[in-house]
Amino acid sequence: MNIYLRGDLGAGKTTLVRALLQALGHTGRVKSPTYTLLEQYEAGGLHLRHFDLYRFRDTEEWEAAGFRDEFDGCNVCFVEWPEKAQGLVPQADVEIVLEILPNGRNLTLLANTEAGRECLSLL
């Protein structure tokens, strides 16, 4: 499953991933992958990958890091700033859009595939 996280800086993308990991039973530290671009986790019987592509610069970096291999159909991939790697990241099954409001946040969920629709129907 590929989940895109969209929103301005500070909208809560990493905070949302942290909460989801904790809800799945992860008890360790959840770091922002802002500088490493990728953090890997195992929780709830799932292989989870958290990408933050804000600092991503070029296609060669993508290939050299082996990121393509992480989208193997076995991992749940959360991708912040997917537009930075447009054409490289697979289509999102689900998109989560976070907006900063004067008194909180607005969250919009979009299903782009049958798997995404099935996932959202369970909520």
Tell me the radius of gyration: 14 Å
Q: What overall geometry do the principal axes of the alpha carbons give?
A: globular
Strand order of the largest sheet: 2-3-4-1-5-6
Count all strands and give the number. 6
| Helix percentage range | 10-25%
Number of domains: 1
Distance between the termini: 16 Å
List segments where confidence is low: pLDDT < 50 over at least 5 consecutive residues: none
Number of helices: 4
What is the N-to-C order of secondary-structure elements (H for helix, E for strand)? EHEEHHEEEH
What is the CATH architecture annotation? Answer: 3-Layer(aba) Sandwich
> CATH H-level name... which superfamily?
P-loop containing nucleotide triphosphate hydrolases
Report the sheet with the most strands, covering strand number, pairing sense and barrel closure.
6 strands, mixed
Q: Strand-residue fraction?
A: 25-35%
- Integer average pLDDT: 92
CATH class: Alpha Beta
The CATH topology name reads Rossmann fold
Structural class: alpha/beta
TL;DR?
The chain is of the alpha/beta class and 123 residues long.
Give an overview of the whole structure.
- It is built from four helices and six strands.
- With 123 residues, it is α/β, with parallel strands linked by helices.
- Strands 2-3-4-1-5-6 form a six-stranded mixed sheet.
- A hairpin with a 2-residue loop joins strand 2 and strand 3.
